[in-house]
Write a structure and sequence with these properties.
about 220 residues, alpha/beta, three-stranded mixed beta sheet, 12 strands, POTRA_FtsQ_type, single chain, POTRA, transmembrane helix, six-stranded mixed beta sheet, 2 domains, Rossmann fold
Length: about 220
């Protein structure tokens, strides 16, 4: 056998298996998507997430752009966080964290469900059982909205259940209206723990308005 023939056969011995591997990974059904698993769902339907992901059964796993899939799923309004991973040989896993409402807000003659970032998740005819955020303009970028969200996040659940409205005409002018009709002048979002401690004592006294905006000097009227 000539030297050139041996050399050619040696190259073929390397290229043929390599080509077979490339074909199997990139073009065949051997390592293609067979299943899409979705976890973390509550209100969202699996079909909606899979449709938004754009992942089609039969797509070679190697061609999947997990970052792009995540961006597409994150485009669903109710999705707060998403993670995407390949599970060889043929499974795509999508882990979703849904947005959850913490407040409601009036939108014309309806009520919007608002999450902790100020995103309106949906609009309903009947007011949901959450404190109502009253601001000049509802927007995740507005100072008043951010202040209202910071205040509700600082309140323990048992106390926030007693709050009917969080009025924020300005970042330093927060006022809480309780479900029993009494009002709390809260001031800014800072020093929440201190304000709550003082307020828990004041609410045992007679009065309609409790001012804890400056914890050093409180008043009951």
């Amino acid at each position: 056998m000539g030297r050139r023939l041996k050399w050619a056969l040696g190259i073929l011995a390397v290229l043929v298996p390599a080509g077979a591997i490339v074909w199997a990974v990139c073009f065949s059904d051997l390592l293609a998507v067979r299943a899409v698993e979705v976890s973390g769902l509550d209100r969202l339907a699996r079909e909606e997430v899979v449709r938004a992901s754009g992942v089609a059964t039969g797509t070679p796993m190697v061609w999947l752009d997990t970052a792009e899939i995540g961006r597409r799923v994150a485009g669903i309004r109710r999705v707060e966080e998403v993670g995407v991973e390949r599970r060889w040989p043929g499974t795509v896993r999508i882990a979703v964290r849904e947005r959850t409402p913490v407040l409601t807000t009036r939108i014309s003659d309806r009520y919007g469900l608002v999450d902790r970032f100020g995103v309106v998740l949906e609009v309903r005819q009947v007011r949901p059982p959450f404190p109502a955020l009253v601001v000049p303009r509802l927007s995740p970028e507005s100072a008043e909205t951010r202040t209202g969200l910071a205040v509700i996040a600082s309140l323990p659940r048992d106390f926030s259940a007693r709050v009917d409205e969080i009025q924020v005409p300005s970042p330093e002018g927060v006022r809480l209206v309780l479900r029993d009709g009494r009002a709390v002048v809260w001031g800014g979002a800072e020093r929440a723990e201190e304000k709550l401690r003082i307020l828990s004592r004041l609410l045992g006294h007679r009065g309609r308005t409790f001012d804890v905006s400056a914890p050093e000097v409180v008043s009951v009227r």
